[in-house]
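We emphasize that the prediction below concerns an isolated chain of 162 residues; any contacts that depend on oligomerization or on bound cofactors are therefore not represented. The input was used exactly as deposited, without trimming of termini.
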Amino acid sequence: MNQTQAEAFLFREVRLLDQRKFRDWRQLLTDDAIYWVPNGDPDGDPQLHCSIVYAATPSMVDDRLQRAESPFYWVGDPPIRSVHTVSNVLLERADGDSADIACNQVIYLYRENDQRRDQILDTLPAQCEYRLRRDGDAWRIAYKKVALLNSDGLVPSLPPVV
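Result of the prediction step, given as a token string:
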């Protein structure tokens, strides 16, 4: 993997999230993937501290998606939409079959049909870490951490995956 490929992968990933194609996004995960959104200390141990999201297995991600697709998922009514901006992509390490990537993201959240002109968008700046693994001809996410800068404060309702 090179820098251009790393950027292209991240751009495609957040595009799926912004289009609310969460099941397609789920296909980007390896069979042993970890998806983590820390609460407070981004370097804390998720086994010992509370997290906003800690999906230590893909089945835990599947559970999040299944709940979000339920008619009883009141948090998602109306649906939470997002727009991700990815910047400062740094390919920290790459060998033939794996790569570590760091980047900054700004995630804008809004609810469909629920905007008033005086209501601002929720803005979530984040520092993200990825560990990608080659699977045949494709790259997949083995680890994703989204460390929200304001995670120690009031965090708005989030879509199933940020």
